[in-house]
């Protein structure tokens, strides 16, 4: 089962108009691996903090 933070992160992405493909690129990940993280199939150390930081960078770039 995915962690609660993944749902929150996906909601933030949606509200900011940022796709999973955009976030994966910002992180240097493949979209498939990002999907595994967001769906609870992989739990790399520090994933939440790193993904939130990348999302914030993208939001700043978009002015969202």
Topology:
Blueprint: H1 4-16, H2 20-27, H3 31-38, H4 47-62
Helix pairs in contact: 1-4, 2-3, 2-4
Keywords:
64 residues; 70% helix; mainly alpha; single chain
In short, what is this structure?
The chain has 64 residues and is mainly α. It has helices at 4-16, 20-27, 31-38, 47-62.
Can you describe this structure?
There is one protein chain. This protein has 64 residues and is mostly helical. The chain is built from four helices and no strands. The chain has helices at 4-16, 20-27, 31-38, 47-62. The model has no long low-confidence stretch (mean pLDDT 95).
Mean pLDDT: 95
Described by strand count, sense and barrel closure, the largest sheet is: none
Helix/sheet category: mainly alpha
- As residue ranges, the low-confidence spans are none
Euclidean distance between termini CA atoms = 30 Å
Report the C-alpha radius of gyration, rounded.
Answer: 11 Å
Give the fraction of residues assigned to helices: over 70%
Order of helices and strands: HHHH
Number of strands: 0
Report the sheet-strand fraction: under 5%
Number of helices: 4
Shape: globular
């Amino acid at each position: 089962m995915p962690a609660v933070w993944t749902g929150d992160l996906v909601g933030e992405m949606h509200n900011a108009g940022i796709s999973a493909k955009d976030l994966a690129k910002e992180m240097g990940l493949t979209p498939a691996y990002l999907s595994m993280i967001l769906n609870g199939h992989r739990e790399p150390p520090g994933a939440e903090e790193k993904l939130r930081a990348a999302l914030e960078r993208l939001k700043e770039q978009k002015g969202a």
